[in-house]
Design brief:
This protein has 188 residues and is mainly α. Helices cover 79% and strands 0% of the residues. The chain has seven helices and no strands.
């Protein structure tokens, strides 16, 4: 795929996520390509997080939060992404879906790349207009939810966005204890 095709697929993902999911699922990349794309997404996400930590201005008088080591962030990011793929797969099948690991992985990795792009845009805008950061992060979260609903619906062949919503909610309920365990500086 060239840059123009990727750009078109990104636009299609935002305008018609179900069709984008069908196109992504029809690609059938090999396992090596999938795992390489997975780890590249983890590294790019880590770089964006470092950029956010170091480039977002902190208001005067606010304490500077301590940053975790980069390797820990990468391991945490990889674990969270892999856990979400497995949760979407297992819970989706529990609810009657027929998705395969590779199907969920393709769609999750693609969504991760789009989220990285959205975070980069948010970072650039936030440097210029810091008060816009929360609005862009909220918009990214809502669009990601919308796309994920359609992606899970296509991967599991549910024919119902409500079942996809159930997968997301149940996956989140299962994930919360694991996320807390993976976050040593968290509230626990």
């Amino acid at each position: 795929m060239n840059a123009a095709a990727l750009g078109n697929l990104a636009v299609l993902t935002l305008t018609n996520p179900a069709e984008a999911a069908r196109r992504l699922l029809s690609l059938r990349p090999g396992r090596e390509v999938l795992w390489l794309a997975f780890f590249l997404a983890v590294v790019l996400n880590g770089l964006v997080q470092v950029g956010i930590e170091n480039l977002i201005p902190i208001p005067d008088g606010e304490p500077v939060p301590a940053s975790d080591p980069l390797v820990l962030n990468l391991v945490r990011s990889a674990g969270a992404m892999l856990f979400s793929i497995l949760a979407f797969l297992i819970i989706g099948r529990f609810l009657g879906g027929s998705g395969q690991f590779e199907d969920i992985m393709v769609l999750t990795v693609w969504l991760q790349y789009l989220q990285i792009g959205a975070l980069l845009i948010t970072l650039v805008i936030t440097i210029a207009l810091p008060f816009m950061m929360l609005m862009f992060l909220l918009a990214t979260a809502l669009i990601s939810l919308y796309v994920t609903l359609h992606f899970l619906n296509e991967a599991h062949e549910f024919q119902s966005l409500w079942k996809s919503f159930g997968v997301i909610v149940l996956s989140a309920l299962v994930a919360v204890p694991f996320v807390l365990v993976l976050t040593p500086s968290g509230p626990v």
